[in-house]
Amino acid sequence: MKKNRENDQMPINGTDEVEILARLSERVEKAVAVIGELRRERDTLKTRLAATEAKLQEQQGTSERLSTLEEDYERLRKERGEIRNRIETMLGNLEALDAGEEG
């Protein structure tokens, strides 16, 4: 085949042109399919991310509530110990009064 001197390329006959367009069309269709699949994957991942973030926020709230409950438990445990000590002291004083009256 002779080269076309104007653009220094080999001339393309009608059959070659059809074949090139068919291959190009096939590649474009594959690219469109890949883009569609990537978009679906992106949407799925966005949905999963949103769900994961919601769970994380819920867990952080639960963690904060648990921390508060642990603090409350510790405070109440100390108060109970203080109350027990006061009652024991009062009982000891009452017993000492009873012993003093009897003796």
Structure in a nutshell:
This protein has 103 residues and is mostly helical.
Number of β-strand runs: 0
- Overall morphology: rod-shaped
Number of discrete helical segments: 1
Gyration radius from CA atoms, angstroms: 42 Å
Distance between the termini: 136 Å
| pLDDT < 50 runs, ≥5 residues | none
From N to C, what is the helix and strand string?
H
Overview of this protein structure:
- The chain is an all-alpha fold and 103 residues long.
- The protein has one helix and no strands.
- The longest helix is centred in the middle third of the chain and has 89 residues, at 14-102.
- It starts with 13 loop residues before the first helix and ends with a helix.
Which properties best describe this structure?
103 residues, mainly alpha, 86% helix, 0% strand
